[in-house]
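thread from #wetlab-drylab

HS: before we spend reagent money on co-crystallization trials with heme C, can we at least see a predicted complex? here's what I'd submit
DV: go for it
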Amino acid sequence: MTEIPEHLLKRSAARKAALSGEAPSEESSESTAVEAAAPAAAPAVAASAPVPEVYVEPAPEPVAPYVEAYEGRKKMPFWILPVLLFLPVWGSFYYGTLERVPQGLTGLLGEGEELYVESGCSGCHGAEGRGGIGPAFYGGELHQTFTTLEDQLVWIAQGSAVVGQGQNYASPDGRERLVGGGMPGFGLGAANELDFEQILAVTLFERTQFDPDEDLAIRDLELTEQMNLMIETGELEPLLAAEGLNIHDILDPEGLTPEIVNAYLQPARDALAAQEG
Ligand code: HEC
């Protein structure tokens, strides 16, 4: 904007005031008087020249708080872009140098952990086995009911309906547990059929993870490791086949006994007994 000489501004103000009928302010009349007294400073041409409109800068509009926040934000440091661009390259180098550390449970226990959620056990017995609609497994509860894992496996395959209302479903030497109803079976014909390996997996998971300090849990853990080993090496399959069994058989809950279950576990039990001498 070009500077408008001070005296012109004052004169324009005085004229405007005169046109609108207002008395010119003392200051402006004074200054015109001064100017008139010094004709050299204000030639007549300037007075008759059209006076440019005085530009008044409009008051700034109020800034919305979010705009203010945006303007006040921390700017990205200048070095961030090259770093971000290089990150995937560095990541792919770094990834190759990492050891594959096994995470969480593996083998039968890993499978059991997954099934415990996927088959709905956790929904009724709690994610940590602390109970809900179904009883708690925690703190030795499970081992008081079932003194062997075979007995527990039979129960999970059968459920409340097959055992029958009011019947004792616990191990003969366990605490008495009478069926009140509500536990679904998972054997042949069930809505959510699991094969032998799957029921074994979830049984072992419950017995070893919810009560890991029990002597019984430690024995179950030894058996689990032996089973895992024999499954991995392919040793178990022919031994079971010789008995007409397959680890992926779906158990018929009717007439299922601990002896039938034990037939699947016998090869691993034999191997453990041989190791102990
Ligand atoms: C719909 C709810 C429900 C689901 C799903 C369920 N249970 Fe149960 N469970 C029960 C009830 C109820 C009982 C008590 C049995 C009764 O009174 O008839 C029980 C009892 C048990 C017991 C006996 C515990 C004791 O000490 O008495 C075990 C073991 C068990 N369930 C394991 C499982 C497993 C493993 C699964 C998943 C594969 C499972 N449950 C899924 C409701 C359920």
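DV: The radius of gyration is 45 Å.
HS: ok that's useful, forwarding to the group
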